[in-house]
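Bench log, entry 3. Co-assembly request; chain sequences pasted below exactly as received.
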Amino acid sequence: MSRYTVALAGNPNTGKSTLFNTLTGLRQHTGNWAGKTVMMAEGEFSYDKTTFRMIDLPGTYSLYSNSTDEEVARDYIIFEKPDVTIVVLDATSLERNLNLALQVLEMTNRAVVCINLIDEAKRLGVRIDLQKIEQRLGVPTVAISARNRIGIDKLLKQVKLVASGQINPHPIHIQYSDEIERKLAELEPSIRENLGSQYPTRWIALRLLDGDESLLSSLKKRMNEVTPDSVREVASYGRTACH
Amino acid sequence: MAEPLATNASDPLDTLLSKARTLADGETVRDGIVSDIYRTTRDICAESVHYEDKKKLQSTYRLDKIVTSPIWGFPIMLAILGAVFWITIAGANVPSQMIFRFFAIVEGYITAGFQALHAPDWLHGVLVLGFFRGTSWVVSVMLPPMAIFFPVFALLENFGYLPRVAFNMDRLFKKSGGHGKQALTMSMGFGCNAAAILSTRIIESPRERMLAILTNNFVPCNGRWPTLILLSSLFMAAGVASGLQTLATASVVMGMVMIGIVVTLTVSWVLSKTALRGVPTHYTLELPPYRRPQIWKTILLSSKEKSLNVLMRAIIVAAPAGVITWILGNVFVGGDSILNHMAAFFDPFAHAIGLDGFIIMAFILGLPANEVVLPILLMGYMSSGAMVDADGLDNIKEIFLQHGWTWLTALNMMLFSLLHYPCGTTLYNIYKETKSTKWTILSAVIPLGIAIAVTFVTAQLVRAFGWV
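Structure output for the full assembly:
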């Protein structure tokens, strides 16, 4: 029986914890407000004879390491390299949510975009052309309602396809301004030379251009120690912090 | 997993960064990156998302015009908070009495059993009067209010009201030099301070985060709600007409919350003018759409996760504490029990701040978890052989009264509970998050100093005016 790691990323309050509970059967406390999950919660579920270990990352608006929770989420995706990262989006405010999805897609191609609260969006008269979004993003895109268990099966099917490598997505390539692109082109070769190809080169180049010191210190730490310390950050089953 | 490269790999990294710096040429690349990402998402959405009616989408926010309005925001907030307390207090009384009577009947049978077996008195004392009675009182006093309060609060949370509270409070926190998100971490403190300390991670600036950490303790958590609710219902509504008693009790609990918030803001303000100077940073607060909570799921979850958890913690400590306090209260040295000797040691100081030695001992022993302060106190009192005849909850008041309690004692115990140092778990989390012994100690000493000062002034004033 194969075993894969799945990370849940997304903006705050898009229902990551609800999806986490739906899939794992665990009872992470859910709440309708931004910033509820600050620690990562971990659980397990099986689908189609495969075991998935699932990590609920803190919800963030960006992955630009503005605060500790953003660093935690970013470090997990970059250093722990989950087999699949599910980006959970709120269907009722897709435009704002997609920004984070694009940032994740710059970090990894092994992603599934999951548009949650689709029933809510329908009720509010928001019509979403799933195929078109999927075509633009270049990764499997599924619409679900985590609390009413709509679309969960479709989601898991795509998650398994990406995890097992049966699908190898080619995510959207964000075109930056000529000036930024020129600088990236100059930086990328030396990054490949120093870090090899274990990290997404273009993304690292972007972060370095942005002067992201915290990423650099994380990188250094990774290279000097064998045990990644983010493992210690994971809270045990179902308990976010104390009660 | 990260594959460790050669150990001196950090040098090339520095070279990389400096190369990047030269390329960036001191400009902020961030704006360019972000605007390109935004352009891309706008692009995608323009061709794949269609709104039948934009107004319909906005309708979820119609309620916000009222609940976050400058005029109605605060009154509505107070009304909702008051209603939650009112429901809790009004609803808890009857089940408390029932559970209490049930345990009293069981105790009667157990005692009869001990007598039938001719068990020695000390064994009956330890097991029945200490262990069983202590535990059963904790259950009957704490379970009903928790079983009502936590689910109601969780429903409010899942509905989406907490961010609105933060929105209303935002201006006040800015004025006191803190971060607007401190209102959110404070709201989380109403549930559990230890969890709230972790939630301060959402605050970017270290200075503002420290403010949020140091002041989080001033809002009552799960472990302290029962104390506040019980004491105010026993002592604070005595002079009020019976129909209004519940209302009066709820107002007192709400008053405590208000005091906590005022202290939070004041301490933030003082710190941001002294040890943690600085200007508050800007941020945007997201107001999520209101969502109909999954009512039964929320109720079941919060009962299981919170009510039972808090109760189990209380019982786990209360049961052995019941035995130990019974022993301490019944072993005599020099004509008085050990327990009384210990309480007497704290008495002079305790008296100055309107408490007594037993209360101080309960707070010290209650450091690991606030849930156990009340149980330890009750058991301390009971072990000294007080005879209790009254029935139900009046029993508890009777015990307090026999130990010289007045409404001042109750008020100051509530104030002390509200303001004193955070629990052991919270302190541990503060240490983990700040990695600083100095700030961890300060986070206990500042509240303790305030708690002592406030209760001292209250006690002296009340006595000077001859109100007790």
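Chain B has one domain: 69-280+298-464. Chain B touches chain A through 82 residues (CB under 8 Å).
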